[in-house]
Amino acid sequence: MAVPYGENEYIYGLHDHETASEKLMRTGSKAKGWYVITEKIGSNPNDHGSRSYKKIADRGFGVIVRLNNSYADEQGTIPRSSQYLNFAQRVANFVKGSKGAHIWIIGNEVNMRREQPPGEVITPRRYAECYTLVRRAIKQLPGHQNDVVLTSPIGPWNGETWYEADPQGAYPANKIAGAPNVPPYNGFFGDYIRYLRDMLVAIGAENCDGIALHAYTHGYDPDLIFSNEKMGNPFRRYFFQFRTYRDQMHAIPWAFRRLPVYITEANGDVEPGTKIRWPDVNSGWVKNAYREINNWNKSGNQQIRCVALYRWFTDDAWTIKPKKKVQQDLKDAVKFNFKYDPDFVPQKPPVPEINIRDISASLPTNPNLPPYPTRSRAEIRRFVLNHTATPPTVTPQRIAEFQTQNQKRPRPGIAYHFCVTDTGEIYQTQPLETVSDHAGQFSADSVGIVLIGNFTDTPPPATQLEAVAALLANLAVELDIPLDGSTILGYRELAITASPGDTFDQWKPTLVSLAESMLAEGVSTTPGYRAEVVSHNTPMQMAAAETRIVAITLKNTGKFTWAAGGANPFHLGFRWFTPQGQMVQLPAQLDFRTTLPFDIPPGETVSLQARLRTPDAPGNYRLRWDMVQEMVTWFADQGEPGLEISGITITGAAGGISEPVVSPGTVAIRDISASLPTNPALPPYPTRSLGQIRQFVLNHTATPPTVTPQRIAEFQTRNQKRPRFGIAYHYCVTDAGEVYQTQPLTVVSDHAGQFNAESVGIALIGNFTDTPPPAAQISATAALIAQVAAQLNLPADASDIFGYSDLAVTESPGKTWAQWRDTLISQAQTLRGGSVVTHPVPPGGGGTPVPAGKLIRHYLLLWHHGGDNWAEWDLLSAVDYIGAFKPTVGFSVVEAKLAEYVTIVGGTAGVPAAVEQELRQAGCKVERLAGATQEETNQMLYDLVAAGRPFRTLS
């Protein structure tokens, strides 16, 4: 189809028109591009001023005119809402007298405060009202019924404008906590991509003709055009360079995908480290920009009809009028003859094919209650996830029975629209039109999805997550809802509740990423966690206790993007195995993880210099290189074959001396202090010099070990009873031995009351009231203390390492502190280079000291053979025994080896005799309580409680 007069079939363009510039976009007599022209017209309804663009159109160029009430930092790109009718009339007057143009942009970067009228925020609803009035006024003019009225472009990367939910119900609130509480912010960020979508939704597809965008890079390196670099928090899923246009294109609702799109400003902003705008070089930046958009257009996407370079005129430093080499870059690009397809209409992706069993009609209801209200599907804006907090075997039928018959809070029917099992089965349990009671006040505009199971301590299995992601992708197409972190929500993000479990922060990014990829590609059979080793130079012979650097190139062959940062980053790790298949345990500080330099999307490769630590003992070993998503899964656990190298020979340590277990400086510390939330309503923490620091104070978080530093910071800064400015600790140490710096050492954080000013606050994540920290966590904490002590010139011994309970009336870092205190201090002092000092147990402060090398005094070992086959009755029988003697209770042989005394409950059919022998070899004093029957075993436990002693034969 031939393009109309005043338009052009090529994608080239310039912001501003001058006859001298036309030669850049002309080959012979053929015009190949567009001009974007801005006009400041005010809002006086009696002003009939106009301008002719006929000469430009007559020469074959496309013409796009941006109509502004005013310019930045003046009276607003559109006026105050009280002037919208006057502005609409002024636009109509201007359009009526202007020849040669029929494409109009209304306003500019309306999400930026400097473009908004003084004293009034332009929300998406306000812009929609203004745009609608202006568009109607234009189309009522004779001969202008078919004019194309474009929406204002947004300012990329700008989070200044946040807003409450649309008063007409078109979109939810756009408020992200954590922005500074200073102008132009007010304690919240606004998601700029959501702003664009909300603006379009408020306008409505039937009332819109086209969309304008802006796209830039941060510098003029031509490779930045193709960069996949992402933003920092809270926008880390969005592109930081030119591909910001892709984020904007993906945000356009499907009903708008038939419309033309124009990029009306593009440049490289400012060259980093300078004040240079558009350096006069033919770098290829311009050519790459047009290659990128041509590739987009040729890939079956909504067509972008022009990219206008900002700018020609000499009004500001971005001018390219005097820059011949930049002009040549454009002339070179025009030779490619890149065009858009005016007839192309993107096809809505097919609904991902998944098996959903609709059982909604068969579930019980409560006939004594009125039925749930209903809604139209157009009112649905998001998805809210819950967990049932039950065993995974509970059925939707049982959930419905419980919720409808609950005495305290009966419901008319099951609260959820969908139930997803741990094996990936999906049940529809309510029609989408039903406003079920799954999310309180947020139920009316959301779909309720419940994952059957309890995810307080453990994330959902991969099969369940993939099923939920497939369901989300399916519903996103059906309901035209974008999939991102703002539309996929856990109920805990909206209300004070734990659902869908304390592990939600761990698995939400994976779920969102998987759902997005399924939406883009359809439900794929490609596994989420897959990696191919392209090349490596792992030696086949190495010395014992040696650290080597190995060059490895990996390709992401799975569905998930490998995130380099965040709460659950992807790392490269390794595992050593003996020829018999037994894994070699290394101290946490030597179990090195290699970080990624940037996010690695599916299909991309990355080259790493990986640290590898060899086993301490000589011999033949098998090495496995494996990727890991921290706190979520090793790839091997998801079926990834990985790279396994057999027959590696480990010789005696060089010089006959093995490397020490760890040394100060080898512990890996990830500094995340700048990314954690603060409370802008409170004054910042004071600061100090490093010379003021005299000691280390340990706390525990008294939470599940899966809680992240991010979550701790959120809780402490938002706590209603005692809010803090920021996270209370300088360091957080996980149960896996990962160390995070969460405050600079120069900050006097609020972790130890009156002792804050002179101490380093270290939090061990977990609850150590009844059970000591795992060995990896203690070793990592000791290594951290040794390293920081070396920096601060402190001894790292009993004179400067304290639990908070040593200094104040508190239980932190847990009642077990006396059990593991000496071990920690001994390790820290050894690593620091001093002699071991044993800290005496204070009177009444923890009972009998635990022997060296034993972290637990008494362990009650029960059997567990998987699933529901475990020592449930033995545990019930031992309740009084546990209450009387307070042993550590569990199923882990590894943990039991850390105990001085071990009591095994039950016969060898539960805990085998070989395990008992293994415990004795580990230096444990072991006693088995096993009668001929269950009743006899129970009686043994009761007799010991009655006698007031924990053992029958041990002393």
Mean pLDDT: 88
- N-end to C-end Cα span: 96 Å
Tally the helices: what do you get? 18
In terms of per-residue confidence, which ranges show pLDDT below 50 for 5 or more consecutive residues? 654-665, 834-852
The total beta strand count reads 37
Percent of residues in β-strands: 15-25%
For the report, how would you describe the main beta sheet? 8 strands, parallel, barrel
Rg over CA atoms:
33 Å
Largest sheet, spatial ordering of strands: 1-4-5-6-7-10-11-12
Class based on secondary structure composition and strand pairing: alpha/beta
Tell me, what's the shape? globular
Helix content: 10-25%
Summarize the structure.
Helix content is 22%, strand content 19%. It is of the alpha/beta class and 955 residues long.
